[in-house]
Amino acid sequence: INLRTVYAFAREMYPKLSTEYIQYGTAGFRGKAEFLDSVMFRMGVLATLRSRFRGGAVIGVMITASHNPEPDNGVKLVDPKGEMLDASWESIATDLVNVSDQDLEQHVAKIIKDNSIDITSSSHVFVGMDNRYHSPRLLKAVADGVIALKGNVREFGIVTTPMLHFFVVAANTKETYGKPTEEGYYEKLIKAFELLRNGQLENGNYKNNVVFDGANGVGARKMLQFIKRMNKSLNISVINQGIGPGKINDECGADYVKVLQRPPISMPVVEPFTRCVSVDGDADRVVYFFTNEKGEFQLLDGDRIATLVAGYLMDLVTRSEIDLRLGLVQTAYANGASTDYIVNELKFPVSCVPTGVKHLHHKALEYDIGVYFEANGHGTIVFSDHAKATIATASETKASAKTLLLLIDLINETVGDAISDMLLVETILNHKGWDVKDWISTYNDLPNRQLKIKVQDRNVIETTNAERVCVKPEGLQTEIENVVSNYKRGRAFVRPSGTEDIVRVYAEAATKEDTENLAYEVGVLVQ
Ligand code: NG1
Ligand code: ZN
User: Fold this and answer.
1) Are residues 504 and 374 in the same domain?
2) ipTM of the complex
3) Measured in angstroms, how far is the CA atom of residue 426 from the centroid of ligand 2?
4) Does any ligand 1 atom lie closer than 6 A to the CB of residue 504?
5) In Å, how far are 246, 279, 450, 487, 520 from 516, measured between CA atoms?
């Protein structure tokens, strides 16, 4: 392989247009699409090297800016087991993207040497993208990066982020996880879902219909595909389908609904207490919401899903008379009331980790059954090999264990998957005979508020203790604590965002008014 080709490609087709430093953050590289061509090309190169480094295992590259606005795009790498790119390679990615075109060839040679990569070995890269109009152009750049290093590239076109993770894992497990195709994905989830329904479409308070807000993103398209393949086992009406003038995530989708705590645009008139679901632009996050009889908006976010799932799994494990270690992983953004409920009512072990799925996923792997969710609706459940074997054995005699076994197939263990998570929630509510009223009455959320604060350099803020305590700049934490102490059930923290050039403020307190004031006061301290 001649590394000259890499340089030639880069110079001729993907020149670096901006010298602004960019960093591989919580969700890979993000930015305005027009500056990302060279980033994409180089990530194609890196994915090829990473695949060779991992003995030829498939590496995934997903092109999306998730819940961010339409002009943005981004790219993240998926490691062989479906995990986010290993942290030790994040800095390799950052350095590679920031070198000049002139230095690129030498830099690639250095990565190869430093990591003892056999450049002649085989390499496999899977690429997927969301439905932003600039994604196809950027996908070509990634593919050219792979081709420049003579790797094998397989393009999946428009897919959700969790679908791409699924394909990577399916291919790397020699298809024991599933078939690495779009049909293979639908087939596995729908089969499990319909077996779990077992013909029982309505039960108690549970009604068999939902409204699905697709955020004008890929989730909408894929949900329409699900509907075509399902045996009317769930009536789903899809809004914000992404056809027409609606822009991705614009006044719709999981992030909008969660952060602004209001329904998305284009909501049809529905009966009070109708279950509504919002996913984000690449369908790895999901939240539920509804309006009550007074027309008030009510949110059921990632914390609600986590507690629902945790309680249900615990119940099944107990009834199956098997001994497995269950645990739930949250971040500092989890509503305090949800944590209290899990600890005091469900008596479920909980841990708190820094923001970002990689941290949650990693921690969840420490349990036999690890449930993890960010408050924004990003999460899933992972089962250890020991758990799978134990459940399989018990399923021969216990109906509850048989249900658990089917749930494993319904869950996309590789990463948070909005559609799979939604089908899981639907299954649990159906089995319990619950409507949203039953679900929301398990505990009362504390009012909470997030603010985005623009500062000169967000990285002057450093945190510890899973981001709940600020250690730099000095003195800020004491000031925050002083403010917080004036509020009943008050809690607040600040941290630099890993995906936007801002500092995030989170506040919760006993009343809505207190929460607003607390968030404001902490925001002022940061500015
Ligand atoms: P940052 O921008 O680092 O807060 C946001 C979300 C994360 C995660 C990433 C990736 C919040 C508060 N933060 O990260 O949970 O989802 O985006 O998409 O929701
Ligand atoms: Zn997303």
Assistant:
1) no
2) 0.97
3) 21
4) yes
5) 31, 26, 9, 11, 6
Which of 255, 277, 300 delimits the end of a domain?
Answer: 300
In sequence order, what are the residues at sequence separation of 6 or more whose Cβ sits closer than 8 angstroms to the Cβ of residue 102? none
Total residues belonging to the chain: 527
330, 209: one domain: no
Ligand 1: residue whose CA is nearest its atom 17: 499
Residue 111 lies in a domain: yes
Q: Where are the alpha helices (DSSP H) in 62-131?
A: 87-98, 101-114
Q: How far is the CA of 355 from the centre of ligand 1 (A)?
A: 7
Query: Quick check: 186 and 159 in contact, CB under 8 A?
Result: no
Domain match, 137 and 237 both:
no
Bridge partners (DSSP) listed for residue 370: 327, 382
pLDDT band at 2 (very low <50, low <70, confident <90, very high): confident
- Ligand 1 binding pocket mutation candidate from 26, 84, 258 (most atoms within 8 A of CB): 26
Atom of ligand 1 nearest to the CA of 500: 2
Of residues 109, 140, 142, the one with CA closest to residue 7: 109
Residue 4: what pLDDT? 83
Query: Does the beta carbon of 135 sit less than 6 angstroms from any atom of ligand 1?
Result: no
pLDDT in tens, 89-122: 999 999 999 999 999 999 999 999 999 999 999 9
Output the domain CATH number for residue 211: 3.40.120
Structural domain boundaries enclosing 307: 302-440
Quick check: 438 and 307 in contact, CB under 8 A? Answer: no
Confidence of residue 7 (pLDDT cuts 50, 70, 90): confident
Q: Are residues 393 and 487 in the same domain?
A: no
Q: Could you say which of 51, 66, 135, 320 is catalytic? A: 66
pLDDT given for residue 510 in this prediction: 97
